[in-house]
Amino acid sequence: MPKRHSLDVVIIGAGVVGAACAYYAARAGLSVAVVDRGPVAGGTTGAGEGNLLVSDKEAGPELDLALLSTRLWHELAGELPDTEYEPKGGLVVAHDETTLKALRAYAEAQRTAGVRNTEVPADTLHTYEPHLAPDLAGAFHYPQDAQVQPAKAAARLLEASKATTYLGEQVTEILVDPANSIRGIRTPRRDLLAPAVVNAAGTWGGEMAALAGTTLPVLPRKGFVLVTEPLPRVVRHKVYAADYVADVASDAASLQSSAVVEGTPAGPVLIGATRERVGFDRTLSTEALRRLATQARALFPFLADVEVQRVYHGFRPYLPDHLPAIGADPRVPGLYHACGHEGAGIGLAPATASLIAAQLTGREPLLDPAPFRPDRPFPDEV
After folding, report:
1. Model confidence at 250, in pLDDT bands (50, 70, 90)?
2. Which residues contact residue 27 at a Cβ distance below 8 angstroms, ignoring those fewer than 6 apart?
3. CB proximity list for 16: less than 8 A, separation 6 or greater
4. pLDDT tens across 334-351, in order?
5. Strand order of the sheet with strand 219-228?
6. Rounded to the nearest 5°, which phi and psi values hold at 92?
């Protein structure tokens, strides 16, 4: 067996959440190792659009987490080079007056929680997005919405953490002592010994919990993204129809789609997002792609003449109550979870990592972590 390593914490997962945990743990003075069975950002992170959203979250614990992350991402943008951080703002549009009325009530509830938003009447929508369809009822502008390039963000966080990184190594065992407390992890190549292990394994978070002898009901939720040919900056904001919010909060396993359209610094327009629970089935869904294209054209008619150059998809780590699992697992002392963020992991990564680092060091957290307890009762367990 290769030489063993003594550390403060081992993080399982080199996606953006794991990388952020490494960054904040190292900044708190801990010695850190990160292990992943693939490359940096090789899972859900690499298939993401880089959304940093507050606009799609109802008032409650997840929105509180998103608002904290919004502040932290802004700070990180000044500390880390080349993440393509772009505080572009979001525009949530309504196709009819009934939807606009519901959107007003939703936006008002968000404002009480600290979200900034402004109603945009139909006759001034073109000042925000000149190429929007002309028959929309109105919209709300969210200046706090932003974007990063997710793979670059994960890589920069990991580099800045200076954590020892082991890529291409599958965790085969989570080591515990006779008292069922964590003492490290095992891969086919090495043991990494530490009194704390952070499960930031994304859609495989449930498997890692099982290796530690506990449970976390993480399921994969599949999603597609269309990538167009490079264009001038014709879409200025992150633009989506109001029904996207309902899709995010839905428990349905069947295919759901609502277009989210945004430009990128490199030129292509990204079009998401679909959701369906089909396990890890990677089959290309022509119906999902057709729906996305149709809905995107309804928002931006010019897209009918734009070529889609490629399609990619990934799997979001879904938990039944739509809240991530963050923090210490009292069932296995020394085990911490940072997974189950579904499609919001990139946006929520810094706040998640901040809570993890606070628990690892016994410091006061910036936010109450209680709603995210990994041992909370999930809907199918009640």
Report:
1. low
2. 161, 357
3. 41, 45, 48, 150, 153, 154, 157, 345, 346, 349
4. 999 999 999 899 999 999
5. 118-121, 138-142, 90-94, 238-241, 256-263, 269-275, 219-228, 308-318
6. -105, 120
Main-chain dihedrals φ then ψ at residue 217, nearest 5 degrees: -80, 60
CB 298 within 8 A of CB 259: yes
What is d(CA 178, CA 362) in angstroms, rounded to the nearest whole number?
A: 24
User: Structure tokens of 128?
Assistant: 């925000």
Q: Which residues contact 260 (CB under 8 A, 6 or more apart)?
A: 49, 51, 238, 239, 240, 244, 270, 271, 272, 273
Q: What type of residue is 58?
A: E
> Residue 243 pLDDT more than 90?
no
3-state secondary structure of 303: helix
Please report, for residues 222, 237, 343, the alpha-carbon distance to residue 245 in angstroms, rounded to integers and kept in the order given.
Answer: 17, 17, 12
Tens-digit pLDDT profile for residues 26-64 = 999 999 999 999 999 999 999 888 999 999 999 999 999
End-to-end CA distance of the chain: 44
Q: Give the pLDDT band of residue 381 (cuts 50, 70, 90).
A: very low
Token look-up 């989210």 returns: 260
Tokens in use for 332? Answer: 């296995």
Task: Provide the 3-class DSSP secondary structure of residue 232.
Answer: coil
Q: How much is the pLDDT for 3?
A: 43
